[in-house]
Amino acid sequence: MKSFLPVLTVVAAIFALWYLAVIPMNMHAALTTAERGGAVISPEGAAARRDLSGISLAANNSEHIASTFNQDRPRLPAPHQVARELWDTTVEKKITSKRSLVFHGWITLSATLLGFAIGTGLGIVLAIGIVHNRAMDMSVMPWAIASQTIPILAIAPMIIVVLNSVGVQGLLPKAIISAYLSFFPVVVGMVKGLRSPDHMQLDLLKTYNASNAQGFWKLRLPASMPYLFASLKIGIAASLVGAIVGELPTGAIRGLGARMLTGSYYGQTIQIWSALLAAAIVAAGLVAIVTLIQRVTLRRMGLS
Amino acid sequence: MTLVLLALILWIAAWWLNVRLANSGLSHTQAVRFGVPLIFGLTILVVWELVVRGLAVPLVILPPPSQIVARIASEVPTLWADFVQTFVKGALSGYVIGCVSAFVVAILADRFDFLRRGLLPVGNFIAALPIIGTAPILVMWFGFDWQSKAAVVVVMVFFPMLVNTVAGLQETTAMQRDLMRTYGASYWASLMKLRLPAAMPFIFNGLKISTTLALIGAIVAEFFGSPIVGMGFRISTSVGQLALDMVWAEIVVAALAGSAFYGVVAAIEKGVTFWHPSQRG
């Protein structure tokens, strides 16, 4: 609660900056439309104004500043325009409509969740293998760590097209990219977590004559939970990025990534911004859910 | 079919060798520690080659490694031009601008406690968002050339770097700060001599995370429009032409560039934070 006021201030400052930036960004277009409508603008003609900065134009034609906030296709839409578009495309439209962001968001979200489940499951299995098998640890772990430095996302277009040519379409190719992105953070975090019990604790179990399986279920797995949740948070954010990027290369027509792509083709900036904001909301929601599960689980386990 | 069988046998043999090496008394020597992952990687490459040839997998699904290597060898000038456009111009310039500006903002935020408490949660929140989505907007603003890619990279690396630096500047203990105060050290003296050095492990953590993000940002931004050169451009057009060996060649270049970039930053870290326990171990 102590940081409530500072956070509010920073957020307010961001919005204020956003509104201020809208003026110079959209000034040229606003003046061109106003001139076409018969208004007198100080340097006449769009060509004469091209090299002038938006700020000086705004200073010379201050009566047209208001119109920069209501452009049809602004270079930078004002926050209220994006908010109205978000409201229109989520609440006002039916969810089944092709123009509803809920519809597109669900397409992306389902790929994200499927991919996240696959990636996390495989990651945990591999981590268990690595912890219990020395040969696997020595041969796979260096590659898993090295793979974190590789821009894996570059591989996305290829996966989509290759799977397409094999006949796999729809949800699965995107989910595979999502899975791929969430896989490595989970492996690395989970290995760290399963190794986190110290020698004392492992020795104690040995004196109890506990088997390997008991050691795993009763000590290693519970001890790994904080690490697992830390990687899950990274993993789910990465999964969403994967699903969005997975929609780009094939010219998909459904999903948040597709909304951004078509928006950028047709210069529908408000559409791009609303898709972007929707993606941000989805990401924040997913991370919040994981955080909530983390808090509940760790409290039940007495770890938090 | 014999090739596939050969691949299977080779796989089992290599795995057996690795198990023997890992469980032998030599498993702590440097040679084995490098050898085991190397054997594993080489086995995967050879098995890949044999299986692709043995099953006659079409080129449009998976090219064999030998063909990828041949492609790299024959397309060096193109690959180099793409590398310069995407990595040197786009990723590297954006990385430097983004990291330096995040660093400056972090120092400012640290000076004013109010700003720090406001920026840290917001920065943490934004760092988790799919920032890559700003790529179409930034491409629209800054044009198709490398400037827009650098802008995407700046936005992508800014927040992870900011959050890490601010967290690092909090690392000193009250005891250490008190000591500086008893020396009569000014704000700048204690920043330069105590708090910045203490923050270095965190700063380098941010710098290392940012290396991968920079390359991803530069490549993905090219999917939204680029001049006819660049790694992202080459990947998306080669996929369209089903020239998958070229795609793999670009991916190999991207992987090498990413690892080398990370390696350079990690090496600098080793030199700067030689005092930190994680570097002495």
Any overview of this molecule?
The complex is a heterodimer of chains A (304) and B (281). Chain A contains 12 helices and no strands. By secondary structure, chain A is mostly helical. Chain A has 2 domains: 4-76, no CATH class; 101-301, MetI-like (MetI-like fold, Orthogonal Bundle). In chain A, helix 1 packs across helix 3 and helix 5 runs antiparallel to helix 6. In chain B, helix 1 runs antiparallel to helix 2. The longest helix of chain B is centred in the first third of the chain and has 36 residues, at 76-111. Chain B has helices at residues 2-23, 30-54, 65-74, 76-111, 113-127, 135-142, 146-169, 174-182, 187-222, 231-240, 244-272, 277-280. The model of chain B has no long low-confidence stretch (mean pLDDT 88). Chain B is flat and about 80 Å long. Chain B folds into 2 domains: 2-57; 72-280, MetI-like (MetI-like fold, Orthogonal Bundle), CATH 1.10.3720.10. Chain B is mainly α. Chains A and B meet through helix 1, helix 6, helix 7, helix 10 and helix 11 of A and helix 1, helix 2, helix 5, helix 6 and helix 9 of B.
According to CATH, what is the class of the largest domain in chain A? Mainly Alpha
Order of helices and strands of chain A: HHHHHHHHHHHH
Compute the number of structural domains of chain B. Answer: 2
Helix count of chain B, per DSSP? 12
Oligomerization category of the chains in this entry: heterodimer
Number of strands of chain B: 0
Beta-strand proportion of chain A: under 5%
